[in-house]
UniProtKB/TrEMBL annotation:
PANTHER family: RNA-BINDING REGION-CONTAINING PROTEIN 3 (PTHR16105)
Superkingdom of origin organism: Eukaryota
Record-level GO BP terms: mRNA splicing, via spliceosome
Basic and acidic residues: bias regions: 154-164
Ranges of compositional bias, category Acidic residues: 143-152
Residue ranges of domain RRM in the record: 218-293
Protein name as it appears in the record: RRM domain-containing protein
One example GO MF annotation: pre-mRNA intronic binding
Length: 294
């Protein structure tokens, strides 16, 4: 029969509950309403709809109701995972470091399983026996390690020495990266300072007569800006001192073509003032002062 469907339930209560809910469904004006009726039992049906009590208990609890997953887990579902390897554990470590909620849930699970807290130095005795038999150390990922895989078995002492050398190489590389980043920052600041006019040249501009930087604060007040100046220009200049800045260029009112730049602290703001006061932007030197208002 086209347009008909028969649904079997485990008991009468489940059928009544479905009957009430289906009758409340409204698909809209342009669709035919569904008609729900009780059907007579099929005497030729051989399959039993009765489930074990354990299955009914599992079906009572949804998987994650808070996240909209209101259906129960499949009682016949079984998981089979591979044995832990250095790569798998390394990937799990990256996931824990990048997802704070996952890290918290793992700590909760360890607490429920009465496992010792992982805070503190690494306990070498707690290492899995599967990993102890492997040649690669679990701490080194494939993209970080430059050590060639050796076919001959190595002693634990030699392995620890390899790990130590690899760690020292990573630390040295990180220090070199930070030093290079600092050098680039210094170069940017020096380039900005080289575009500033000297004191005797600034004295010729009205904005620098009786110039007083004011009391130090984390906010700078910038005037004598050209009308072509944009917030992007100021953002590019002052981002050399800190990435955490806020630029506000006024376009209307008494403070038109004047700007305020907020820094994370007074120390950074002071360096920015000393390095950019007199900076020539669009053929006009900027007059930089400490802002009085917060």
């Amino acid at each position: 029969m086209p347009g008909f469907v028969f649904i079997d339930f485990i008991d009468r209560n489940a059928a009544e509950d479905a009957y009430k809910k289906l009758n409340k469904i409204n698909f809209g004006l342009y669709y035919k309403p569904i008609k729900v009726e009780y059907a007579k039992p099929d005497p030729n049906r051989q399959a039993s709809l009765e489930l074990p009590q354990t299955s009914l208990e599992q079906m009572a609890e949804p998987i994650a109701p808070l996240h909209g997953i209101n259906y129960p887990a499949n009682p016949n579902l079984r998981y089979q995972y591979p044995d832990p390897t250095p790569d798998i554990l390394s990937n799990i470590s990256h996931a824990l470091a990048s997802v704070p909620r996952l890290y918290t849930q793992v700590l909760h699970l360890m607490n429920k399983m009465n496992m010792p807290p992982p805070f503190g130095p690494m306990d070498k005795k707690s290492q899995s026996t599967i990993l102890k038999k492997r040649k690669e150390d679990a701490l080194l990922s494939s993209d970080e390690s430059e050590l060639e895989e050796q076919e001959d078995a190595t002693t634990s002492k030699e392995q620890e020495e390899r790990v130590k050398q690899a760690r020292q190489a990573r630390i040295a590389a990180e220090k070199q990266r930070l030093a290079l980043k600092k050098t680039k920052t210094i170069d940017k600041v020096q380039q900005i300072q080289s575009k500033c006019l000297a004191s005797h040249e600034l004295a010729q501009w009205p904005a620098f007569k009786a110039y007083d930087a004011g009391e130090p604060s984390a906010r700078l007040y910038i005037k004598n800006l050209h009308k072509k100046c944009s917030e992007q220009d100021l953002q590019q200049i002052y981002s050399a001192f800190s990435k955490d800045i806020q630029v506000n260029l006024m376009r209307k009112g008494k403070l038109r073509d004047q700007a305020f730049v907020t820094f994370p602290d007074e120390k950074v703001a002071k360096l920015a003032l000393e390095s950019t006061n007199g900076y020539v932007l669009h053929d006009r030197p900027m007059a930089v002062l400490f802002s009085k208002s917060k």
